[in-house]
Structure formats: structure tokens, C-alpha cells
Design goal:
Strand 8, helix 4 and strand 9 form a beta-alpha-beta unit. The longest helix is centred in the last third of the chain and has 16 residues. By secondary structure, the chain is of the alpha/beta class. The protein has eight helices and eleven strands. Helix 2 packs across helix 7 and helix 2 packs across helix 8. The N and C termini lie close together (7 Å). The strands form two sheets. An eight-stranded mixed sheet has the order 5-1-6-11-7-10-8-9, with helices on both faces. 32% of the residues lie in helices and 28% in strands.
């Protein structure tokens, strides 16, 4: 996948995954550089570009970091689950596009306000007629979810108590499992379904069964957490003046060109 540079983006050195993995917060105690990671399959928020990531949230962090006077290294950890682990253990300083849950707050310091609200969808095979009215409509059916995903504290609790779901390794595996009939439905972010699902094999049955705020967050083990106030000020301005929306549109355009 090609890496595209937009005029609004800050030029940064692209490092390989192996090199980025060594650039931990322990190497940047003066916070001259932050390591950022995110979901490799969540366009336009973040998506894989070779050994790096691109997308609206990555571009946003580059802007916030430039305003704070620090450089950026982008780490494609290979999966959403691995990206969260890298931020929790200090390999990465910042993770983008993440929901806020009590469990995640143990390892993450969230930058307020949220970047945007993020709807999640129910997907099925094209020949399935899902009679969905509310969450309980999924009870008694077999669902598929990707490792490391959350749909907010309320739905996560409902899912754990009432639903039968099987975890798979990433969105491509979710699409494949759904296609083969391994599940009756899948749960996935609307943006990821819209940009990643094979249109002839998967359909969006419910556009938004839940919507959660999506954030940028610092790992609590990061030595660069003192940048949070500067990022918070920049985030407020970026949401207020429409910068986030513009970056999302550019991220989507870049993703479409890279396909």
C-alpha cells in the first residue's frame, strides 16, 4: 500500500516496524519525539501504509505534536490488539481512535475532548434478513467480533451477559468467517465496514447499534504524558474549527487512492 502525503501533513521520517518498536518512551525521556500507533484497518481514522500508518487521526497527532514542538514516529503494530498492548507497555506513547472504558483507563490517559463520535454496525451476509429492533434482537444468534474491540461499557456488559460471540483475529478474518457461515452476524465500526467489507459478500444490516466517542490517549507508562495539556488545547481547537472533519475527508481520499 502506498503512502500519500497531503499538503496539510507534516513531513516525518518513515521508519520500519522493527525500528519503530525500538523507539520506546524510555528512549525519549525529554519528549522530543512521540511514538504513535493505532488500528491498521480503520480508515479514515487510521490504516496500514506498509510498515507505517496513515489516516485522519495520524495526521491530527502530527499537527498536535508539531504545535507542542515534538517529532513523531508512527508504529504499525500489526493489529488493534497489538497496538493497545504497545501503548500499555510503553512501546508506544500515543494510541489513536480508541473508546473510553474503565478497563482501558487503567493503562491510558485520555485526551479530552473526543475527536468524534463513532457508530458501530451489525453486518451480515447479503442473503440474511436480520430483524433488528434493539440489542436484544441479537440474543440467540451467533455473533463474530474482532480481538481487542470494544463497543462502549454498556454494550460490552450486555454482550458479555446476553450474547453468544466468537472472537476472530482482525476484520479480514471477521469478513471471511461471516462469509463461510461461521456466524449469523458480525460487529464492526461503521467506517471499517464501509471501507473494508467486500461489498458482494457482506452487507451493513444495521448502520449504528451503538455510537461511542473516539479519543486520542497517552499510555500511562509514557514519559511524554506531560504533553497532554498541550494536546488537549490543540484538540479543542481542532474539533471546534472543523480540522478533524477535514482530516477525516483527506484520510478517506488517501485510503481510496491506495486501494
Amino acid at each position: 500500500m502506498k503512502v500519500f502525503n497531503s499538503g496539510i501533513r507534516i513531513a516525518v521520517a518513515a521508519l520500519s516496524l522493527a525500528a519503530a518498536a525500538t523507539a520506546t518512551s524510555a528512549d525519549t525521556k525529554d519528549c522530543s519525539r512521540v511514538v504513535v500507533t493505532g488500528h491498521p484497518n480503520y480508515a479514515p481514522v487510521s490504516f496500514a501504509a506498509g510498515s507505517s500508518l496513515e489516516g485522519g487521526a495520524i495526521a491530527l497527532v502530527r499537527r498536535l505534536a508539531q504545535d507542542a514542538g515534538v517529532a513523531v514516529t508512527v508504529l504499525n503494530a500489526g493489529s488493534w490488539e497489538a497496538a493497545q498492548a504497545a501503548t500499555a507497555d510503553g512501546t508506544a506513547d500515543i494510541i489513536v481512535g480508541i473508546y473510553r472504558t474503565p478497563e482501558r483507563e487503567k493503562t491510558l490517559q485520555y485526551v479530552m475532548p473526543a475527536m468524534a463520535d463513532d457508530p458501530s454496525s451489525v453486518i451480515t451476509r447479503p442473503d440474511v434478513n436480520l430483524d433488528y429492533k434493539k440489542w436484544s434482537s441479537l440474543v440467540g444468534k451467533k455473533g463474530l467480533v474482532s480481538d481487542g474491540e470494544s463497543y462502549g461499557p454498556k454494550f460490552d456488559a450486555f454482550m458479555a451477559k446476553r450474547l453468544t460471540v466468537e472472537k476472530v483475529k482482525g476484520f479480514p478474518a471477521l469478513f471471511a468467517a461471516l462469509e463461510t457461515g461461521a456466524g449469523d452476524y458480525g460487529l464492526i465500526g461503521y467506517s471499517a465496514a464501509l471501507t473494508g467489507a467486500p461489498k458482494d459478500k457482506v452487507k451493513i444490516a444495521v448502520k449504528s447499534f451503538v455510537s461511542e466517542p473516539m479519543y486520542i490517549a497517552f499510555g500511562r507508562k509514557s514519559a511524554c504524558r506531560n504533553l497532554e495539556p498541550a494536546f488537549r488545547r490543540g484538540m479543542k481547537a481542532a474539533v471546534r474549527d472543523g480540522t478533524v472533519d477535514r482530516l477525516w475527508k483527506i484520510g478517506l481520499s488517501d485510503f481510496e487512492q491506495a486501494k
